[in-house]
Amino acid sequence: MDKINVTLAQMTPKLKDKSYNLSQIKNAMEEANKNQSDLIVFPELFLTGYSVGDKLNEQAEKVDGPSINEIKKLCKSLSLYTVFGFPESGDGETNFISSALIDNQGELLGLYRKTHLFDQEQKFFESGSNFEVIPTPMGNIGLMICFDLEFPEVARSLKLMGADILVIVNANMDPYKEHHYIYAKSRAMENEIPVVICNRLGQEDDLNFCGDSLVLDSWGNELLSMKDSEGIETAKLPLSSVMDSKMDYVFRRKEDLYSILTDSQHRE
Predict the structure, then answer these.
(1) Which of 60, 74, 112, 222 is most solvent-facing, going by the fewest CB within 10 Å?
(2) What does the angle CA 24 – CA 25 – CA 26 come to, to the nearest 5 degrees?
(3) Is 255 noted as a catalytic residue in this protein?
(4) For residue 211, which of 20, 18, 12 has the smallest C-alpha distance?
(5) Which of 186, 187, 134 is closest to 162 using CA atoms?
(6) Minimal CA–CA distance to 228: which of 196, 200, 195, 186?
(7) Residue 246 annotated among the catalytic residues of the structure
(8) Are 95 and 55 in contact (CB under 8 A)?
(9) Boundaries of domain holding 115
């Protein structure tokens, strides 16, 4: 498969209203199906809204929970792959910010738990402990979530693990719009890999979510840029391209010089 149709659902969820958000997911997936999309991507914690920490006991679900099962049925009936964000209920009282990849037969192919928690997220969620690259007929998909984007080690690790495309679910807010625009293009260019990043819109308390969802090819070229427009848009994404052999960043790494990156005495 040389190209795929990728749909971004840059929308505004209703906080703590899973029924409403599931209806939005259904509508967006039906629109993607009409556009002959292969993959649709939703924002971080879209199932519940972002500021859900104080209601996690009510809102978080396990991977076989009712909302996730409903999305599985939609994937099968509409023959769509999807990546979406939700609060995952783990063992005991442990909860994670997670993204799930479901295939076009309604099967859960993989799950990623956010490893880099931002600000107040640390009060309510645990960090994940693994990076995930998931094989699919579209290529190997590496999953990331929002703040992960700001750590170049994450994208590089996924590339070294064999990822062919990076899919990032986002709940990025002002004043960090420019940060993520620059980082998304950088992650694509420095790893010579396509990047799909889906952010949300709307306001929760003092948080203003800033959109700017993107589909970038492996050169960092913008194939889709949604700015601050609410909607469901599709782009054709090449999964491979002829790269500049003078660059070849992965091959030209000097691994013996990078031990400082994991040396604990340099963490502060």
Answers:
(1) 222
(2) 90
(3) no
(4) 12
(5) 134
(6) 200
(7) no
(8) no
(9) 3-266
* Active-site annotation holds for 150: no
210 beta partners: 201
DSSP lists the bridge partners of residue 99 as 85, 112
Segment 206-228, tens digit of pLDDT? 999 999 999 999 999 999 999 99
What is the CATH number for 143? 3.60.110.10
- The H or E element that residue 216 is part of is strand 214-216
- What's the full length of the chain, in residues? 268
Out of 114, 159, 177, 185, pick the active-site residue: 114
User: How many structural domains does the chain have?
Assistant: 1
- The token pair that represents 111 in the structure block: 């799950």
pLDDT beyond 70 at 154: yes
Whether the pTM exceeds 0.90: the reply is yes
- Cα 169 from Cα 61, distance rounded (Å): 18
DSSP 34-48: HTT-SEEE--TTTTT
In whole angstroms, give the CA distance from residue 234 to residue 150: 25
